[in-house]
Every structure is written in C-alpha cells, then in structure tokens.
Amino acid sequence: MAAVCGTAKWVFGLLLIIAASTTAQSNKTLLRVQFGPQDRTIIVGQTKNVTLRLHGPLSEPVTVNFTQTNATNDNAYVQVTPSTIAFTPPPSNFIDRSERVSLRGLRAGIFDLLAHLSPSSALVDQSQAFVRVTVAKSWSLISVSSVIGWTYFLAWTWSFWPQIWENRTRASVVGLSFDYLALNLLGHTMYAAFNCALFWNGSVQAEYLRRNPRGLIPVLANDVAFSLHAVFATGLIIVQCFFYERGQQKVSYTARAIMTVFALVVMISGVLVATGTYLWLDFFYNLSYIKLAVTLVKYVPQAVLNYRRKSTVGWSIGNVLLDFTGGSFSMLQMLVNGYNYDDWDSIFGDGAKFGLGLFSVLFDVLFIVQHYILYRNSNYIELRGENYPGPGSVTTAPRQNIST
C-alpha cells in the first residue's frame, strides 16, 4: 500500500510538472505586438509619442507598418514617424524590444492607429496592437468642454433638491404629479442598474469588450454616482408623499399601464437570460432602453397637471431651472466636442443622448412659460392663500411659509 501511495504521488507530481511546462510553453508560443499607452490625445500641429513593443518568439525578420482607421493616404489624421519598423530576431530567437513612435496631429478626428506585422502569422497576438487616438483642434476647447461637463453634471445632480426643500417647507406635495414621480423612479432605477453592471460586473464588462474589441467601457464613475443619487433623491420625495399633505391625487391607471409594460420587458428579458437566449449585457441594455423611453414620457403628466390646475405651485421652479441648465450644457458640450474633434457623428449618428437633452429642455421651457407667464397670477393668488377657483379635484396646500 505504501508503495502504491508513493507511486501515485510520483505520478501526480510528474503530471503537475508537465502541466506547468506546457502552460509556460504555450505562453511563449505567441509573439505579442503591443502599444502603450492605448489612449492618446493630440492637438493639431503638436506631437505625442507612444511605445510599440514586440515580445515573444521571433525566428525571422519582420516589419511593422501602421494604418489609421477611417482615413485615406491623402487625408491622414496624424503623421507617423517612423512609418515602418524592422525587427531582427536575436540569437536566442526570443525578442523583447520597444520602439518609440511619434504621432504629429494633422487634422481633428477620433480613430484607431493599428500596427500590422509582415509577414503575418497565426502565432501573433495583436489584441493590443492599437492605440485610440483623439486629435483635437485646441486644448482650450478641451478645458471648456470639461468645465461644461462638470456644470451639467452638478446641475442635474442638484436638480432634485429644490423640490425636496419646497415639499418640506410647505409640508405638502400638492401640485407635484405622482405619475411623474413613479415614472422618474422607474427610469432612474433602470439607469442605475445598467451603470452599476457595466462599471462593476466583470463578466458584463468582458462581454462588452468582446463585442467591442477596441472599445472602452462607456460608463464612468460620475455616471454611477449620478444615477444612484437620482434613485435616492426620487425615493426621498416619494417618502415625503406619505407624510405631507397630498390632496386626492394618486398614480393614474395610464402610468400604471406604462410601468406594467416596462415590467413585462424586464421579466421577458430575465427569462431570455435564464434560457440562454440573452446574455446579461443584453438584459442591462434593455434596462437602459427603458430609461430612454421613460425620459420621453415622464414630463407629460406634470405639464398636464399644471394645465388642469392653472397653477405651478408645488412644482419647484428651482428643479426646472437646474434641469434646464443641465440639459442645455449637455447639448452644448456635445456641440463643442463635435467641433473640437470634428466628430459630428457622435451627435447626429447616434442622436439618442442629444435628443433626450433637447426633449427635456423643451419641456423645461414649457414649465418656465407656465410658471412665469401663463399661470403667474394664479400662483400669486394661491401663495397669498386666497380662494383659487381651479379645476377642482386637487386640493391646495396650506399657504404659510411657501417658497418658490
């Protein structure tokens, strides 16, 4: 028995050695062509450097040349120096050599600089043989875009709090559409789930990169922070609805039907994931589409409620002004970037973000007109506590200590 055990241990150890050597050998069979860094921003007329590295087994001389996606020979984005690089195998037939490549900006645009090995071989790993290059017209415009971006991020983030403060001051949520609140909570929840999945979940990120091999994860930390804060703030307003005067209003059957349809979409997507028809990335994409659809319809109930009451009291104008600022600056940043990078396709080729910003701004303009022009006198009467003969099923809140 001892001999058998000893033999088994010897065989097991031999298998481990063979497996380790096989793994080491497989790791050395690929010649890797790598760029570093893989993301560069250059100004027209200026030069930046990247490093090209060749690492792995090399038994014959090879040459590396470069191409630029979305460019022609007569209309290149950058001038690449040197245009080709020759590599000669060392005596060991294993190379680890890095060369500096200079990129001089010629015209604005966003593209991938690709490295190609000649003669080509199936034993070459070129998964990192690219660098995403952004050629801009001006550093000043990049700074302006950054300021605009932070402005709209902060405006949208803080746009919830004037409504929360107004509800607290009035001890009432009369005048605030419950349909708007319900749809808003649903939309922000879907958006938060999508952002969190793409920002934190490794398998979802891996699937995204598999479909977009030279892409970057589109969700940043500020996207996650904004969406989670939006869920919290909207939820806080809904909690206020349970404690403050709310009149006779409730979530309408129309809003319930819309949310039921969205719930069915989520349920069906979950079933498709469970059956293997969908991947989790598809599931979370559907959640983001729900967010887009909600944004298109969520403002309508509040505009209709204001019209029926002939008043905007209870609907914070601070919320509207901050939302208007956020939407306007969001579109402005897209226009600045489109000009600076000569990348108008980012707006008109995929107009969802621009369209949603425009849609929200148009509704904010309507709310501003309702508040300051159409119902200004009615708002004044309500705030003074006088009898207001509005269309009647919605009771008004106590008039003391009301801020607008």
TrEMBL record:
Give TM segment ranges. 139-161, 181-204, 224-245, 257-281, 317-336, 356-375
Origin species, per record, is Anopheles merus (Mosquito)
Q: Which UniProt keywords apply?
A: Lysosome, Membrane, Repeat, Signal, Symport, Transmembrane, Transmembrane helix, Transport
What family name appears in the similarity comment? Belongs to the cystinosin family.
Q: Which InterPro entries match?
A: LC_transporter, PQ-loop_rpt
Write out the annotated subcellular location: Lysosome membrane
Q: Which GO terms describe its molecular function?
A: L-cystine transmembrane transporter activity; symporter activity
N-terminal signal peptide: 1-24
What is the membrane topology noted in the UniProt record heading this document? Answer: Multi-pass membrane protein
Query: What SMART domains is this protein classified in?
Result: CTNS
The UniProt entry, under Pfam families, shows: PQ-loop
The catalytic activity, as recorded, is: L-cystine(out) + H(+)(out) = L-cystine(in) + H(+)(in)
Q: Which superkingdom does the taxonomy of this entry point to?
A: Eukaryota
Which GO CC terms are listed, alphabetically? lysosomal membrane
Major subcellular location class: membrane
Please state what the protein is called. Cystinosin
